[in-house]
Amino acid sequence: MSSGKLDCQSTSGSSAAQLAQKYDESDSQDDSGIIALFALALVLQTKVIICLLAGAGVLFLFGILFLVLLKRNLRSAFNVSANIRRKRMRTGLYSTVWLSVGLAVASATSIDQTTSALQYTTNTVIDSGSRIKTGTTLRVLQWLIVVFSTVLALGLSTMFKTQGGDIHSGGIEMGNAKFAHSSTPPPPPPPPPLMY
Question: Helix (H, G, I), strand (E, B), or coil: what is residue 13?
């Protein structure tokens, strides 16, 4: 690790001693510091930080499934049972998408805090000869996931409007070309032609 080379790969099934042997390039015979660092990283990776981002992705996919089912249901004829089904799908859509945003925020925050703590620990507390430096790429990508999923969730929140308890699609409906409901009245009809 003293060469400044950056490595990123899976540590699944590896022990701290195996990782230390693979990555420690120092000439020191005492590997206890680097083994302790890898042991700490493995515990954080496997037991402390659960896979929040994967959970957010699964919830996001369920949200897309609810979106497809709701849009398909909106094309069918309106009746009371269809409206109840639409309300349930809309609730499921909003719940899964916003929970996905929440898990993405939790994941990005926990990764930021953990990598900053490891950087501080290796720079000030542990004298292992190796340093952990937080990269900006991981942070940027995780916060981009948060931003994009929030924008999508906000867009979906405005997509389906309720009027008098009935759920309608916002925007243009393809079947009868209705435009979105607005608070302004339609324009007046054109004046009759002038007669001479």
Answer: coil
